[in-house]
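=== Discrete structure encoding ===
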Amino acid sequence: MFHDTTSFDDSGTRHGLVDYVGRYRRLVTDLNLSVTAGGRLRGVSEASRLFLGPLRIPLPAALDAKAYAEQWWSPDEGQAGKHRIQVKVIQPQLGLVLVYAGHFDYRLEPYPGGLSAPGYLPDRARPDRWEGRS
């Protein structure tokens, strides 16, 4: 299973989306978003770093990889349409590392009563371990 959490960072040092990758969310990368001429959402990963306890280790460009992702809604597919995604990951030394194209379904569910405070996550969406990130 692939673990990935994207959140908005407005900590003052940067403003934008940050992607936390992996079961323990130790690989972190900034995301730049744009919209393609065809109306697709395009995300490109930028500077990556490792979170190891209190250490924040920036990955040198020679070790870092860039992910290029596009997402869009395809209303003509299936009864209710499909959310489509395609991803390529390229590492400078190795070249093309990963290619994925597919779709996913999702549903919106209300938070359980009394647990709608900002920051609440259902158990199934919580990371295996929380770590302070200031």
Summary: The first strand starts at residue 4 and ends at 9. Residues 4-104 form one domain.
